[in-house]
Fold these 2 entries.
Entry 1:
Amino acid sequence: MAVVRLHLTLIEMAGGKKELIIDAQQPLLLTTLLDRLGVPHEEVGIIVRNRKRDAIDCVIHEEDVVELFPILSGG
Amino acid sequence: MSIIIKVNMSTKNITTAENPAYKLLGGRALSARILLDEVPPNCEPLGPKNKLVIAPGLLAGTPITSGSRISCGAKSPMTNGIKEANSGGNIGLFLGRFGIKAVVIEGLPTDDNTYVLRIDKKGSSLLVMNELKQLGTYDTDQKLRATFGKDIGVLCIGPAGENRLKMAAIASSDPNGELKFAARGGLGAVMGSKGVKAVVVEKTLQQPVYHDRQVFMDMVRTIHAEFINDPKIKNVNQKTGTATIVKAVNAMGALPTCNFRYGAIDGVDGLSGETMYETITSRGGEGKVGVSCMNGCLIKCGNIYPDASGKKICSTLQFENIALLGSNLGFTNLDPVAMLNYECDDIGVDAIEAGAVLGVAIDMGMGKWGDLDGCMALMKEIRSNTLLGKVLGHGVQVTGDVLGSRRIPAAKGQSFAGYDPRALKGNGVTYAMSPMGADHTAGNCFGSRGEVNPLATEQQGDLSKSLQYKMCALDSLGFCIFARPPLFKDPSRMSTLVNAFLGTGLSVDQLWEIMGVNAVRTEREFNIGAGLSPANDKLPEYVYAEPLPPTNEVFDISEQECLKAIV
C-alpha cells in the first residue's frame, strides 16, 4: 500500500481527505489520483515522494509515501 | 523623496542634503551606494568610520500594499562585510511621506549618554534619554510612546545592541504596537556603538509628491485587486502566515533539527502552521491571526500567539523562528518557541541567529534538546551580558569556535536560516555566494514552482543568481517579499509604479538592473574592499561531507556551479 497525504488548501479540494492509503501494486500516475479526488493539477505546488521532490507526472508505487502541498513561497 | 539627514554622533550635528545621483535608489540599493561611497570598506564595524543607513524603500510613503518597508544597512560586525536588513513597521511609511530618503548615522560619541533621534515636521533633533538605558525593546517602545505620543514610528535597540553584541537586531514598531525586526547581521550593535537607542518619527498624513498620481493609483488598484481576489491570501496567508510551509520543508527533509543534525523532526505537526492557527483561535483572548505589520498591507500574515489563558506571548510566530527556535532545538510544541521568540525580541537579538546559537550550545553539551528552562537560562545570560552571554550574543560562529564545535551552521560568520543547504541546495548556493552571508531572503529557492529540483546539482547557480537580484529589487523598492507573486508575474507593474512616481521611463530590464543587479554588485565590491575574498564564498566543511538524514544528501554543488550565482 502507498500513503498519500494532502495538506492545506488541497484538503478541501479533495473533499476533506487528508490521508489516503491506496493500493499501488499497479503503479498509479499521480495525475490519475488527483483527477479521482477532484484536485486540479495546477493547484499542486510541491510534491514530495519518499522525502524527495518529485514532479506532477510522477508515478506512485507500493510503499511510497507522498506528500502534496499547494503552491507555497517562502518568507 | 530626496532629503538625506546626516547625524554625526561625534559632533552631535545634524545636517540635511539632497543628492540627485540617488534619485532612482531607495532601500537596499541606496544603502549599498551610500556605504560604498562614504565608508572605507576595511573600517572597524563598531568604530567611527562605519555608518548606519536607515532608508525607506523607493516607494515607501505611497499606498501600495506591503511597500513601505524600512531598510537598515552598514558594515556588519558579524560578517565583516556589507549588510542590509529590512523590516515592516510604520517608520518607513512616515519617512517616505516626509520625503526623507535616508537617515545616515555616523561618527562615534565620546560620552556615555543614551540618545534618541527625533524626526518630525519641524526637523530633527538628538535628545538624551538615559532612562532608556538597558531597557528591553518593549519597555523602550512604551516609554517612547508615553513621551512622544502613541502614533509615532519607532526604531530601537534592546540591551543587546547597547552592549554591542554581534547578533543585535533593530526593532521597528508596527501599527498594532508590536515590534518587527531588521534582524540579521548585527546592525543593532552598530546603532548601539553610535549611542543611539532609538529613532522616533512623528506620524504624518503628508502625502508624497507624485509625477503622475493618476497612473500610479490606477496601478495600485490593479495590484490590490489581484491580492483581494486571490483566495490564497485569505485562506492561507492570513491564517498561517509564513508558518504555512513548516510541514512542506519538513517533508523535503530540509527543516533544521537539533543543530542541523537532521532535516526532519518527528512530531512536526506540533510546530505546523495548521497547529499554530488552531491554537491561536481556540485560545482566543489576545491571540490573533491576520495581522498586518504595515498600514494598509493586504496580506496580513502576522499573528499574536497567546498562552493557554489567552494572554499574548509573542508576535509574530514566523517559519524561521519556528525552525530555528523550535525544531532546531528539539521542540515539537509552539509554546516554548513563542516564549523564546519573545525573549529574543525583547533583548533585541536576531531570533534566527539566537536559535542557531542555542543549537550549537546544546550540541556541545550546554543543555538538552527540547528543554525550555535550559534555553531560557542561556537567553538570560545574553540579557545580563555575562561573559557567557557575550560569547553567545556574538552569534553562532563565535559560540561554535569557543566551544570547539565542528558543526557550525554559518556562512561568512552568519547563521543559516530555516533551510538546511543539503536538502535545499539552491539556498546553500545563496548562503555561500550572497554578499549578505547566509541569508535566505537574499535569494530563497524554496517553492520555486518545481522548476529546479532542490536536490539537483545543476541549475542551482542560475536560480540563486536570478533570485538574488530580484529579491534585492524588492528590498530596494520597499516591498515585502511575501508580496512578490503578482509583482513577479508581471514586473512591468513595478516599473509603471516607479515611472509614475518619479517621472522616469524605466523598462523592466532597467528596473532589475538598477534596483537589483547593480545593488548586489555594489555590495560585492564593498565586500572585496573589506577583505572578503572569494575564499569566503563557501559553506562550512561539514555540510559537504556529513549526510543529512532523512535524505542523506550532502551539499555537493560544484564550485563552478556556485560561481554562476555571482550577480
Entry 2:
Amino acid sequence: MPEPAPERSALSAGSPVRRWLPWAALAVVVVTCLSIAAFGSTGTPTPQDRVAAIAKTIKCPTCSGESVAESNAPASQEIRADIAERVQNGQGDGDIRAYYAGRYGDAILLTPSASGVNALIWILPVVAFAVAVAGLVVVFRRWSGEAPAHASAADRALVEAALRREHEQAVEADDAHGEGSSR
Amino acid sequence: MNVALGRAGVTLGLAAAVLGAVTVVYGLVRKKPELVRLSRAYSVLVLLGGVVAFAAMEHALITRDFTVRYVYDNGSTKTPALYNFATLWGALEGSIILWGTILGGYLVAVVVKFRKRLDDPLVGWALATMLVVAGFFFFLLAGPANPFESVSPAPGYDGPGPNPLLQNHPLMAFHPPMLYLGYVGFTVPFAFAIAALVTGRVGEGWLLATRRWTLIAWGFLTVGIVLGSWWSYEVLGWGGYWAWDPVENASFMPWLTGTAYIHSVMVQERRGMLRVWNLSLLCATFALTILGTFITRSGVLESVHAFTESSIGPALLVFFSLIVLTTVGLIGWRGDRLRSPGRIDSPISREGAFLANNVLFGAFAFVVLMGTIFPLVIEAINDDRISVGTPYFNRMTIPLSLTLLFLMAVAPVLPWRKASGELLRHRLLWPAWIGAAAMVVGVALGARGVGAVLAFGFGGFAAGSAGRQIVLATRRQGWRGLVGRANGGMVVHIGVVVIAVAVAASGSFVRQAELTLEPGQSASFAGHTLTYEGQQVRDEGAKVVNQALIRIDGTGPWGPSLNKFANGSQTIGTPSVRSTLTDDVALSLIQVPDGDRTSITVRVTIQPLVIWLWIGGAVMALGTLLAVFPGRRRNPIDPVSAPLPGARAGRGPSGREGVAPRPGRADVDDERDAEEVPV
Amino acid sequence: MSVTDEATGPARDGGGGDEALPARRGHTARNAAIVVGIVLVALIALLATRGTSEPVSSKIVGQAAPDVSGQTLDGSTFSLAQHRGEWVLVNFFATWCTPCRVEHPELVKFSQQHADDPVQVVSVAFDDEPAAIEEFFAQQGGSWPVIPSDTGRIALDYGITGVPETYVVAPSGLVIGRLEGVTAEALDQVIDAAGGMAAAQGS
C-alpha cells in the first residue's frame, strides 16, 4: 500500500476479541429485542380488533376497490355490524369470510385464494425474484472466474488521449448546457 | 368565446406538435440542421397552445361559462374559488389540458437548456420524441376528450360542481399538479433514451444531460404520491393513507422503476455498465406512467380515484402499445450492439448493492403490477372474478421493504469495486448500534411483532449509515457536504427511513373502534378520552354540513362532519384528525342525531407516528432539492479510470469507464471516493 | 411485465463480454426484448378485450331467497314468506340513483300489465330518506310495498353490490334471476323462461 488510509491502521489495531466484542454485544441486544418482539404478549386481541382485522379482508360490495374497514358506505357499515355480531356469536374468522364468499362470490375476499390459477399471483413474483437472484449469482460466478484485464502503458496513453478529448467536448457541452462555462 | 379560444389553443398545440415532429425527423433523416433547429419554434408553439387552452378553461371556470361542456359538467356557481380553480384537473378532460401544458413547459425547458445543441441528432431525436408525445395528448384534447365542446344550457342552469370528494380538502389543489409534473417529467429522460437508441449514442452523454431532469421528475412524483396519500387520509376518513388501490398503484409503479433507475444509473456513470438495462428502466418507467393513465381513465379496473369511464381508453391503449413496441423493438434491434463491456468484481461492493437494489425494486414493481392486473388475467382465463387487496400487497411487499431497508443501511458505506469484511465491520459498527438502539426503544415502548421491530431496527441502521455519510461529508466540505447527488441522496434516505418507521408503527399499532355517544357523554379508548359536546348544522351553499363537536383529551373541539352536497346524491363524510408528533386521533362521523335519537356514532382511529409520513415526505423533497443543486463540478480531466501518469492514487473518483480495476487497490478504495469530492 | 423479465438483465448486460470477445456478446438484449415483447403484447391484448368492469356476479341465484321483511312505508308489514306461491320481484333502489329513476317506469308498466297475475313487487330502499321515497313514488307512480331505509340487513343478505338490482323470486321460493336495471320485457322473459305465470299456485 503506497499510502495507507488512516482508517486502515485504526482498523488493524486490536486483537480479534476486541474487534468482535462490539458486534457480539450487538448480536445479543438484537436477539433479545427480537425474541421479546416475537414472544412477548400483546394481550389477547379484543373482539373489536378481530372485527377490524376481518373487515380489512372483505371488499366493500357497493364501492370500488375499498375494504369494508375503509369504506363508510352503508353496506360496509352493515357488514361491519354483521361481522361484530358473528364474532360475538363465536364464529371463527374463516367461517365469517366463507359466509361472505357464499353470498357475494369470491370477489368479496381481498386475499386471493392460493388454489388453481389463482395461486399464480403468489407464485409468479417469488419465481421471478428467485430467477433474478439466481441470474445474478451465475453472473458473479462467471465474473470471478475471469482474470481481470490489466491495462498496459499503451492503454493508459489511449485513455489519457480520450480523456483530453472528452474534456474539450465537455467544455463545449457545458457551454451548450448553459451551466456556466470556463470561457 | 372561451370555446373558440380553447379550441384554438388545442389546435395550435396539436398542429405545432405534429408538424414539429415531422419536420425535425425529416431534418434529421435528410441531415438538414436548419430544419432540426426549428424544434425551438415548434416547442414554443406547443407550450403556447397549452397555455391558451389552460387559460381559456380557467377563464371559463371562473366566469362559470356553462356553454363550455367541461364547465357544464363539472362547474358550479356554488364551488368556492380554490376548488373552482382546481376543477380544471378534477375531471378527465381538464387533467389532459394540464398534462399537455406541463409537457409544453418541459419541451421549452429542454429547448432552452440545450439551445446550443439543437441540431445535435441526439437532442433532435429527443425533441422529436417529446413532440410526438405532446401530439398525442393534444390529439386527445382535440378529439376523444374534448373539453371545449359547446353546449347551450337552459337559462339559469347551474352545473353540478366537481366530485364532492375533490372539493373537500385544499390538498386537491396541489396533489394532481405535483403528480403530473412527475409523470410528465419522465418524458424527458425517456425521450433521450429513445434518442440514444436511435442514434446509437448510448454512452454517458445523454445520461449526464438528463440526470438532473430525472431527479426532478422523480422528486415531483414522490411529492405527488405523498400528497395523494395525505389527501386520502384527510378526506376518505377510514384512518388509512394507502389502500393499494389501482390508481395509487399506477402512480407507485413508475416511482419504483424510476427509483431503480436513479440508483443503477450511477453504475453506468462510474463503470460504464448496464447501459441497455438503464435504458430499459427509463422506457419501463414512462410506459408505466401511460399504463397508469390508462388504468385510471379507462374504467377497466375499479378504483375510488378513477375518473368516470370515457372514450380515451382505446386511444391510451394504442399509445401504450406504440411506446412498448417502439422501445422493445429498438432495444431488441440495437441492444446487443450497444451493450458495454465490464464486470463487477465483487457482490459486496457499491455496484453489487445497486444490482441488488434493482432486483428488489424490480420485484417490488412486479408484485404491484401483478396485484393490479391479476384480476383481469383471471377473468380472461376462466371468467372468474377475484379481488386483490391490501392483505396480498402487505404480505408480498413487507419482506421486500425490509430487505430494501437493510440494503439501504449497508450500501451507502460500501466502496466501489470491492469491500473487505474488516472495512464493513469498521464502517457499520455505529450505524448498527443506532439500529439496535432503535429496536430497544421500540420494544421498551411496547412494540411487539417481529416485522415492526425489524423495521425500526433496519430503519435506525439505515438512518445511521446515511447520517454517517452526511457527517463525514460536511466535516470535509462544510455546507457543500449537504448538496450534490450523493449527499442529497443521503438526505432522501433519511426521509425514506422516517416514512418506513411511520408506516411500520402506524400500520402495526393501529386501534380502531366505533363509539356511540350521547351529548355530554365521554368515552375512553386506547388511552384517549372523547367527549361529545353537541351538534352543529350549517348551510355553506355548496354543501350542508352536519358537524359533531368532540373534545379529545380536553382539546378541541374537533368537528368531524357529514356533508350533503348541493348536487344531491349521497352524503360525504369529512373526518377530523388531531395530529401530534406521537400519535393521530382520527374521527369520522358515521351517524348524526336523527329524529328521536340524540346520540352520534363516531369511528375513532388511533395510529402512532402518522404525522412523520408527511414529515418524511418533506425530507425526501428537501433531499431531492439538495441532490439537484449542483454539487461539486468534477474537473473533466480528472482521472476517471486509470490514473494519468504521475497522478497520485486515490485522489479522484475512479472507474467511470469500463476499464479493468487495478488489483490491490480495491478494498482500500478511499472512502472519499464514495462521495464526489472536490479535488 | 417488463420488470421481471428484465430483472436478470443487468447481470447479463454487464456480463456479455467486451470488444475482445465478440462471441460472448450474444443476443441477450434481443432475446430479452422478444420475451418481454410477447408478454407485453399479451397484456395489451388482454386490456384491449376487457370491457369496463361489471359488478360482481351474485351467488344467490339458484338459492332460497333470503327473507325480506319489515315495515313498509305505509305502516303495514311485509314478509316474503307470505308470498310463497307467487312470483316476487325484490327491487333494490334509491331515489338518488339515476338508473333507478330510469327503470322505475318499467317496473310500473310491469306491475300494471300483471295486475291480475300472482306477482308481487316489493322495493327496498337503499340509504335513503322516507320523505324522499314518498315523493319519488308520488311522482313516478307505483303502488307496491316499499321498505324504507335502515334495512341494510336485507341488502346484505342478498349481497347487492349497487342499485338498482332486482331479484326474481320464483313461487318455489328460489331466486331465479338477478337484473341490474329492468325492463318489463326482460322481466317477462325471465319469468316465462322459468315456467311463466302458470308456475304459480292458484292460477
